[in-house]
Amino acid sequence: MKGKILFLSIIVLSSIISCNSKEKDNVMPNNDKEVLSNVKVINKLDPVCQMPTSKHLKDTLTYDGKLYGFCSSNCKEEFKANPKNFIK
Ligand SMILES: [Zn+2]
How many whole angstroms from 8 Cα to the centroid of ligand 1? Predict the structure, then answer.
């Protein structure tokens, strides 16, 4: 009887331990900036890559008095380098 309880507690313990290590594995390295959800931009799509800014907004730039949103700093830099290529 005592042996069975010990056996069960080992199972419970090991499942807790494996559960914890699983959670650790799920933690992804977060190099990306967080999505900006409270920023209003005038463009619905990233002018560079056409991604919807509502879902992928990570960087913004004020150009010609308007706030443009971008999915990434790369797209912003590309836009900044030559905005007229992207604004029609
Ligand atoms: Zn983009």
Answer: 53
